[in-house]
Amino acid sequence: MTESTMPKLGIGTYRLKEDVGYQSVRMALEEGYRHIDTAQIYENEVVVGRAIKDSGLERDALFVTTKVWRDKLNKTDFIPSVKESLKKLQLDYVDLLLIHWPSPANGESMSEYLSALLAAKEQGLTKEIGVSNFTIAHLKEALSLLPEGSLFNNQIEVHPYLTNETLRAFCAENGIHVTGYMPFAVGKVLKDETILDIAEQHNVSAAEVVVAWEVAHGLVTIPSSTKRENIAANLKALELKLSAEEIKRIDSLNCGDRQATPDFAPEWDQ
User: Following CA atoms 116, 118, 124, 128 in sequence, which dihedral angle do they give, to the nearest 10 degrees?
Assistant: First the structure.
């Protein structure tokens, strides 16, 4: 796939290992998903690769993303780690390669790891390059280091309890696509009365409302599930059109309830 065909909805694989991860990706591909998100640290690239191969789908029908972990953000280990990921995925390239966190384990400079990221693209190991969990300050530095127009994506936490509007606006102003991860806030927003009310009005699930809200904001999103009915329902959300008033109601739920808070996280934008 090309950058213009990055599907708005992908299947996330965080915490889905071994057979559970394999089955989730297989079901998603069977239901019609064509975008798969994984990462080196998820320890599931092997089963994701097997699910892709067993699906029988053509390579160019898929959009596959993986991410380089913190201990590989140096000029020695970066490219070998990407090649190892490709070997596990049984792919010649990924569509999108991301820096997982702006927090190199050994304090390497951004210049060092972004140079390696760009080299991965130049070597044909990935079609597009991007970052994840980068703040505005990190993005400004990255934009100063990379060729104009080459920073394709920033994958960040976005859900109704953490709308991340300031960072999203900066990305939009600079032509950076945003992928919102953890769209359900680990299930919290699926119990929200406002979202449940909107879901009832449309006769759909709370999850469909959240996915439709993300897409309405121009975001790509990557919910995960191990149940076929939920995987299928999330895909149906692409057909759900929320009113401007409904979108505003969901926007108003923002309360800064961040789920991804490892001890190496950056100082987040407010």
Answer: 130
